[in-house]
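Q: Protein A?
A:
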Amino acid sequence: MEMTVAQKAQINIAEELGKPRLVALLFCDYLDRTKEGKSNLAGAFDIIYVDPERKRTSPFFLFVRTAETGSGPLQVTFFDPNGAVAAAATFKAAHYTSTPGRPGHMQVLARIQIDTPIEGVYWVDVSHNGQTLGGAALTVEFGKQDEQNGIDIGTTARNRD
């Protein structure tokens, strides 16, 4: 990838740094934190296989990082392909860190399972004080175990890249 260098920023950087924003939203198989506070994530994915009889995901990890969201609750909402709420959780600013002169960050590290009544693309929205910061898609596919290809529904998720 070739990058070009602009002579001057086309945005007001100080203004942008002060706005609440979504920094990262990932679904993964494994997540932990070091004693220094670093997050280790493994097995990031955007598609998950679900048993069509259970219609519930196996446990997986959700990693959310926002900036400038310390003033109110952070809500994560999973919408099914029809726009109905499949799951939602609210997180307080207890994990918000702020150092003067630097952006304040909040991280959510959660192991979750959600009901998935229908297959398709679920939208995961991250909101702060009732305003969306952005989101990501998580595709849910129903299927039986495929011994030839090693797909074990309920435990296997993959990235389509």
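Q: Protein B?
A:
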Amino acid sequence: MENLVCIYTCESHADQLALFKSLSLYDNLINSNHRIIEVYSGGTRTEFSDGKLICKGTESYDALSIKTYEMIDYCVKNFNFDHLIKVDCTLAYDDTTTEKWKQKFTPSAVNEFVNKSSYLDYDGIHYQNATMLSFKSWANRKNISTESVSELVGSNTTNGFYTGKCYSMSKRFCEFISKRYKKSSYLYAERYGGIEDLFIGKSYYNFRVLAKVR
């Protein structure tokens, strides 16, 4: 199994990336068969050089859906892999006292996940469901303006997702997103605060329906 590990970072997280690279987790990744790239945004076009993927778009929290789409699209078209594993460099320093779910993303937990023997088409460490209340709380906490929240979340059952700190996607799920969801990634940035993990979660719901994946 050939995995592509995408370490999500940005220029303002240089110290956190350095801390991430000081972990035994990173040493284990380097010594494994995984291909490792660093993923940034802020480019006028998406391009790869010296182990860094610079995605088209602004480097801002409310544009993460675009960054994620560009990452997936480029990787599908340019790299061979069975699964793409996305890891945030910030897991190395995050304060877990205010958001208890972050305790699930210890370096040892992530190390165990990235070295699993098999993965589902969409897999991760912590699965949760978005509600109107949790979405609004997230937006307020991040000081992000959103609109038409009820259209995105509502009271249906399609709001499940793996938390964005660390999750994986199969090549065929990535191909599904690459072909179908560029416009949707921009819509999420324009209207819903660019919420990346829910963007992926809802894409997977559609993948399951259309591809009849169970």
